[in-house]
Write a structure and sequence with these properties.
- The complex is a heterodimer of chains A (405) and B (330).
- With 405 residues, chain A is of the alpha/beta class.
- Helix content of chain A is 59%, strand content 9%.
- Chain A has 3 domains: 123 residues, Rossmann fold, CATH 3.40.50; 68 residues; 148 residues, Rossmann fold (3-Layer(aba) Sandwich), CATH 3.40.50.
- Chain A has 15 helices and 8 strands.
- Chain A has a 4-stranded parallel beta sheet with strand order 2-1-3-4, sandwiched between helices. Chain A has a 4-stranded parallel beta sheet with strand order 6-5-7-8, sandwiched between helices.
- In chain A, strand 1, helix 1 and strand 2 form a beta-alpha-beta unit.
- In chain A, helix 3 packs across helix 4.
- The longest helix of chain A has 65 residues.
- With 330 residues, chain B is α/β, with parallel strands linked by helices.
- Chain B has 3 domains: 122 residues, Nucleotidyltransferase, domain 5; 143 residues, ATPase, nucleotide binding domain (Nucleotidyltransferase, domain 5), CATH 3.30.420.40; 52 residues, no CATH class.
- Chain B is 37% helix and 23% strand.
- In chain B, the strands form 3 sheets. A 5-stranded mixed beta sheet of chain B has the order 3-2-1-4-5, with helices on both faces. Chain B has a 5-stranded mixed beta sheet with strand order 8-7-6-9-10.
- In chain B, helix 5 packs across helix 7, helix 5 crosses helix 8 and helix 7 crosses helix 8.
- Chain B is globular.
- Classes of the chains: A alpha/beta (405), B alpha/beta (330).
- At the A-B interface, helix 2 and helix 15 of A face helix 3 and strand 8 of B.
């Protein structure tokens, strides 16, 4: 069956999985101007921006003849829960015979989940499925690990664009992987490629780190967020994103009471400021902001689709949280109208802000250290003097006491 | 004399300043760009050369800022290419080190910058709308037949208050027409407009921010005493207008260039010389057909057919094909 999926960040994992299940994969293109125009044209006007982009991608896939579109779901109180049905309806109205299958959490309704597995597994025997799933999990895990690494190393590249070009090659290498051993070997090769790229040496104290939180689709898909991560990297800032597909899988498969993966702990960390989850990843993101502050990050960039409800809730809380944690947070609300120049100017100004703050903190830190050392020395001297005084007083008293006895 | 230069290429004006080593501004020029930023940069540089009579060797460094900063940076050979927020804050802090809030209203955009202990701690730029910016005032002045230079003074003569909807330029205009038909005077309408603009500005940009004095008001619109009065009424404090309010961005970029050159001990600035400006520069654009993004790629080509700079490609396909790599982060 001709099968496709939405484009969200690195899609090699989906491609390999569907190919292994014997589908003919129609690769979706990264969302382009045309995708967005199509999506905006055929979507309800007030729906979220990610819905519109995905709609555009689905239409493009349907044009190429896709019969099945597989996606993962968001069965939540936010509008993401109605994506599959509305997407399906719009595609139908446009006259495409494409079926949209969206996987929700298997713990919610296992039978429904299994029905969908049956529709997608394409006749692959059940006994082969765990092995396949393990292989794909390994693949996405390793790729995500590399991508995380890249977003740190790319901040210091000497020739702009080296890492991004290398990453494109590495993705192609992973697409050819067939066994877990291939994946491990490719991972090692990729690390070597990364290491070989010339980089500036930077002292530990001068590293500027920024965390990215926000709605899952806009933070994972660089073409939609105007390449925020690369812009920040080019400004010499290390970036850590909170969403990767492997983390998402772990978060949804592992029981919530376990202390791992980390996202479970982070989820609980926000209990005080965000006791309820409003739908998307708002509670988690609040936890991540606290986690970033704890780890001494210099700032957080918050990306949200225009009028996304869960993130709007966070947006309201951020000014107070930012003050409390003493960490700047910048929100960017994204939609099809957003200009790249605007994003760039804001990110540049934000980078200048956090850099000057970082260096000022350091200077102050040294000053504080000297100050507190002097203070503690003075305190010690004082207490010593007090001790001597006490001793003297005591010694002058004791003989009398002894006499008295 | 040795100079540092600063160029601010905005949407409406191009500002060129020259500053000596002791931060004294020796030359400042505010040029209306009329949609030709490159021409106005050339014009400004020529005026600068004639006015202070300097040679290529006298220039110690150049900084550019504003929306056209990259293009102008390539044209003149800038040492520092910085965003407007940092440039404005740097200049303000030089003149008013204790400043806490900067209102900046330019031709097409407005920003608010919050400072503490001489550092930017927060900022906001208007995102989607041109209501409440200089070009809106310009347009309304033209419609009312009042020269923009006299706009502010006329507002001060108003006796009564008129409330005009300032949320959106289109609504503001129809509201103004209605109020005119009710018989309010020109001065009152202009005052209402100034108040509406400030109200809109504070609602949009000052949201969730604590605004603390001293307040500094700069940008081209700061020339308008009506707006200044409206700001003072709104915040209930004195609003200071710096001496070089309309070229603060350019001054900031010159200061940044000086700091950059001195911190890194650069002997030779990247200034290309005044002679270079006489040459023809051709910014050309073409639509890349590589994918369905159809990016409009802009190229600056010198007279000897050398590609000086390329930008506009989303995928980075053309990055590194030009002589000057992108230096926005410096």
């Amino acid at each position: 069956m001709k099968t496709s999926f939405p484009h969200m960040g690195c899609v090699t994992g989906y491609k390999v999985l569907l190919e292994k299940l014997g589908h003919e994969v129609i690769m979706p293109d990264a969302p382009s101007q045309r995708t967005m125009e199509l999506g905006v044209k055929y979507s309800p006007e007030f729906i979220c921006f990610p819905f519109k982009v995905m709609m555009g991608t689905y239409i493009e896939c349907a044009e190429k003849g896709a019969e099945l579109i597989v996606s993962s779901g968001g069965a939540g109180p936010c509008r993401a829960g109605m994506y599959p049905d509305v997407h399906q309806k719009v595609l139908q109205e446009l006259g495409y015979n494409t079926k949209v299958v969206v996987f929700d959490s298997m713990f919610q309704d296992f039978n429904a989940f299994y029905e969908k597995v049956k529709a997608v597994k394409n006749g692959t025997p059940n006994r082969k499925l765990p092995g396949l799933a393990l292989f794909c999990y390994k693949l996405i895990k390793k790729m995500d690990k590399l991508e995380k690494q890249m977003k740190i190393m790319r901040a210091y590249e000497i020739n702009q664009g080296d890492y991004s070009r290398a990453w494109k090659d590495i993705v192609k290498m992973f697409e050819k992987c067939d066994t877990i051993r291939d994946v491990d070997r490719t991972y090692k090769q990729a690390l070597e490629i990364f290491e070989a790229i010339p980089r500036r040496k930077v002292e530990e104290s001068r590293r500027i780190r920024v965390g990215i939180v926000g709605e899952i689709y806009v933070i994972m898909e660089p073409t939609v967020n105007k390449n925020v991560e690369e812009i920040l990297n080019n400004l010499g800032v290390e970036v850590e994103n909170v969403q990767y597909i492997s983390d998402w899988v772990e978060h949804n498969i592992m029981p919530k009471w376990l202390p791992f993966p980390k996202s479970h702990r982070v989820f609980r960390m926000s209990d005080k400021v965000a006791p309820l989850n409003c739908g998307g990843h708002d509670k988690e993101n609040m936890g991540w902001v606290h986690d970033f502050a704890k780890r001494g990050f210099d700032g957080v960039v918050h990306l949200m689709p225009f009028a996304c409800l869960p993130e709007l809730v966070n947006l309201g809380k951020f000014p107070a949280i930012s003050k409390e944690l003493n960490m700047p947070i910048m929100s960017l609300s994204l939609d099809e109208q957003m200009g790249e120049a605007h994003v760039k100017t804001r990110l540049e100004a934000f980078t200048d802000l956090i850099k000057s703050k970082h260096y000022a903190k350091q200077k102050q830190g040294i000053g504080d250290a000297i100050g507190s050392a002097a203070q503690s020395a003075a305190r010690k001297a004082q207490s010593k003097a007090q001790e001597v005084k006490d001793n003297l007083a005591a010694s002058s008293h004791t003989p009398i006491k002894q006499h008295a006895k | 004399m040795k100079y540092y230069l600063g160029i601010d290429i905005g949407s409406v004006s191009t500002n060129v300043i020259a500053m000596d080593e002791n931060y004294n501004v020796c030359f400042s020029q505010y040029i209306r760009a009329n949609g030709q930023p490159l021409e106005s940069v050339k014009k400004g540089m020529k005026m600068l050369k004639d006015a202070i009579g300097c040679e290529d060797d006298d220039i110690l460094g150049i900084g550019t800022t504003g929306s056209g900063r990259e293009l102008a940076g390539v044209l003149v050979g800038a040492d520092v290419i910085k965003n407007e927020i940092t440039a404005h804050a740097t200049a303000t802090l030089h003149y008013h080190p204790d400043a806490r809030t900067i209102f900046e209203i330019g031709g097409q955009d407005s920003k608010i910058i919050i400072l503490q202990d001489g550092m930017v701690t927060d900022f906001a730029m208007n995102t989607v709308c041109a209501a409440g910016t200089g070009s809106f005032l310009d347009h309304q002045a033209e419609r009312l037949g009042v020269p923009i230079e006299q706009f502010g003074e006329l507002a001060l003569t108003a006796e009564k208050d008129v409330r005009i909807a300032g949320r959106c330029t289109v609504f503001a205009e129809s509201d103004m027409i209605a109020k005119q038909q009710y018989g309010f005077s020109k001065a009152e309408i202009i005052k209402g407009l100034c108040t509406a603009l400030v109200r809109n500005y504070i609602n949009n940009l000052g949201r969730a921010k604590t605004l603390k004095p001293p307040f500094i008001f700069q940008g081209g619109v700061a020339a308008n005493v009506g707006i200044r009065k409206a700001f003072e009424d709104e915040v209930g404090e004195k609003v200071v207008i710096p001496k070089y309010y309309n070229v603060m961005g350019a001054i900031g970029s010159a200061i940044l260039a000086k700091e950059y050159i001195e911190d890194n001990q650069i002997e030779k600035p990247s200034f290309k010389g005044f002679g270079q400006l006489e040459l023809e520069f051709k910014p050309t654009s073409f639509e890349c057909r590589g994918c369905s993004n159809m990016c409009e790629v802009i190229r600056v080509i010198s007279s000897d057919n050398e590609v000086l700079a390329v930008w506009g490609d989303k995928c980075g396909k053309y990055a590194g094909t030009s002589k000057a790599s992108r230096t926005a982060g410096r």
